[in-house]
Amino acid sequence: MTIAKAIAMNRFGLGHRPDYGSSDRQQAWLLDQLIRFDPSPQVVAAQPSRQAIASAFQSYRMDAKQFRNMRKNKAGTEDQIAMLEAQRKESRKSLQNIHMEAVDARLTVALNSDTDFAERLVHFWSNHFAISVEKPPVVALSGNYEFRAIRPHIMGKFSDLLFAAVQHPAMLLFLDQAQSVGPSSPMAKRISQRRGKQFGLNENLAREILELHTLGVRTGYDQSDVTELARALTGWTIAGFQGGPAQRRLAESAKTGDTVFIDAVHEPGQRRIMDKTYGAEGADQVKAILSDLAVHPATARHVAMKLARHFVSDKPPEKLVNRLEDDFLSTGGDLPSLYRTLVEAPEAWPTPWNGAQAKFKSPWEWLVSSLRALNVRDLPTNMKTAQLLRQLGQPVWKPGSPAGYADETATWAGSAALMRRVELAERIARRSADRIDARALAPQILPGVLANNTVEAVARAESPSQGLSLLLVSPEFLRR
Fold this sequence. Notes:
Elements (H helix, E strand, L loop, with lengths): L1 H11 L13 H11 L5 H4 L4 H23 L5 H35 L3 H13 L7 H4 L2 H9 L7 H10 L1 H6 L11 H10 L8 H10 L9 H11 L2 E3 L20 E3 L9 E3 L2 E3 L4 H12 L2 H15 L6 H14 L3 H9 L19 H11 L11 H8 L16 H4 L2 H18 L5 H8 L6 H8 L4 H9 L8
InterPro entries: DUF1800 (IPR014917)
Protein name: DUF1800 domain-containing protein
Keywords: Coiled coil
C-alpha cells in the first residue's frame, strides 16, 4: 500500500505535499481529481486576454518599424533615435514579461493544486501540441495557448483538443500557417494579375498535424497528403496580428487576436487525403479532415504509446498500449476514459518497486516536486522561474522543436544536467532547512520506495541543509 501511495503521488501526481490528502484507495483518489479539476484557477484567469496580448504585440511591431525606418533613412536626431530605441526595447520587454508571468502562474498552479494528476495531464498535452517561444510573436502568446487552448479541453474528446490547439494563434504563428495562402485562391489570383506577385503554400502545420499531433511518423501518409492538408488549412489566420492583404478581408466583427477563416485565402477545390475525398469547401473542409484524423486508428496508437510512455515506462508494455489503443477507438478518443484505463492498469502499479525501471523526472517535474515536498506555496520574490528552468535545461514552452521535449531518461540524466540539479537543490534546501527535518520528511515523500543508503546518507549529513539537498537529489527522488 505504501508503494501505491508513492506511485499515486509521484508517478501520476506532481509530488508529495505535507497536506497530501490521499486515502488508501489510491486509484479512486486519482480518478476523483478528474472530476474536481479546475481548468481556470484564479491565477490562470488573471492572465492577460488574447486581445490584450495582441495589442501589446502591435505596439512592439510599430515601435520596431519606426526605429528601423528612422535608422534606414538616417532621419531624426541622435536623441530621437535613442528615444525610439528605448521605446522599442521597452515594448519588447513587456512581451517577455507577459511570458515570464505566465510561467510563474503555471508553477504556482502546480505547487498549490490538489488535482495534480490533472495538472500533469495539462503539461503532457501542452508538450504533445508543442509550440516554442523561439519566434518573437509566440513569446507573449505562449501562456495563453496552454491556459486557453489546452487546459479547457483535456477532459473532453481528443478531437476538441486537436481543434483548439491547432487553431490557436500561437500555433498558427509558430508553424507559419498564418502566412499560408492558397496559390489558386481568389486573393492570390487577383494580386497575381495586378502586381505579378506569387503566394506560397506553407506546409509546416499540415506536416506536424500528421506527423506529431495525430497519426505519427511513417503511418501511411505521404507528401501528397501533407500538401493536400496544407491546401485545406489555407484561410486560417489571425486578426490584427500581422499585416498583408488578407487583413483587409476580415469581418468587421473580428477582434484583434481572434483566429479567423478568410474564404478569399482558401485554396478552392476538393481534397484527397489518405484515400478519402473531401468535397466541402472552406472551413468545413478542414474540419471534416481533422475530425477523421482525430479518430484514425494510427492516431489511437500514437496517443496510446505516448501516454503509456509518459506514465509508466520509457518502453511501455505492449499489453498496456493495446488496451489504451482499444479504449481510444471504442470511445472515439474520449480522454477521461483513457485516463481511467491508465490509472487502473496493473502495469502502472508494480510491486515490488523497481527504481531502475521507473520514469526519470524531467527538470520541470523535479523542480515542482522539490518545491511541493518543502511546502513552498508562493514563489519567492527573487525567484525567476523562467530563468531557473532554462538553467536546468528545460525552458518552459521552448522545446526547440515542434516534437516537444523528449519523454525518456537519456534526455535528462546526463552528468552536467544532474550537477545543475545538485546546485539548485543546495540553494532550495538552504531556504527550508530551519523548518524541515529531512530525516522525517524522507519516508513521507517516498513511502515504500526509500532505500537504506539514502536514509543513512540523510541521517549522516553534516547539516540540516545538506540533509535536505541529499534527499532532493537521491536516486529515489529523481524518479517517479
